[in-house]
Amino acid sequence: MVDGFTAAELVEIRSLVLADVATSGVALGEFTLFDGRSSAGTSPDAYRVIEGDIGPTDDLFAQVDGHWMRIAADTVPDAASMVLAQLQDDIIDALGRGWPEIVDANNRFEGVAVARGESAGEPAGWYVNTRRLCAIGRLARHQ
After folding, report:
1. SS3 label, residue 7
2. Cα 112 → chain centroid
3. Which domain of life is it from (predicted)?
């Protein structure tokens, strides 16, 4: 996505992230997205913070409670997975345990799922070990 994300795509990324974070029970706080390539989601404060603290505004950025993250992605699912991957440690710290913990039909622990971006022909999604559990935004079905 050389020209960046549209405003509608930023809304979709945000919705996917919030849907999965909601399964943790952890309050996320202020969460905004800014795409320097398309100017979608921009504000004067976003330009000031990004240019002063991160560098050139030529990528997608996520802001959570004042913390800015650079997200190098070209698709909506990939961007959402990268935001979730960066938030996962904060959620685990807040919970004091792994998140999201996945159990099988017999309630046996399978592992902690990991949000992965698109790579080697595999779609973005939540993975347990090497098995794709679900698409980004669909974690509630497995909790």
Report:
1. helix
2. 16
3. Bacteria
The answer to whether residues 115 and 81 touch, using CB atoms and an 8 Å cutoff, is yes
2: pLDDT strictly greater than 60: no
Residue 100 in tokens = 């999201």
- Structure tokens of 71? 């997200």
Looking at the chain, the number of H-run helices and the number of E-run strands are 3, 8
Show Cβ contacts of residue 131 under 8 Å, excluding neighbours closer than 6 positions: none
Pairing of strands 101-103, 67-71: unpaired
pTM: 0.84
Distance CA 143, CA 136 (A): 14
Sheet containing 114-116, strands listed edge to edge, beginning at the edge strand earlier in sequence: 114-116, 125-128, 131-134
The domain limits of the chain are 7-142
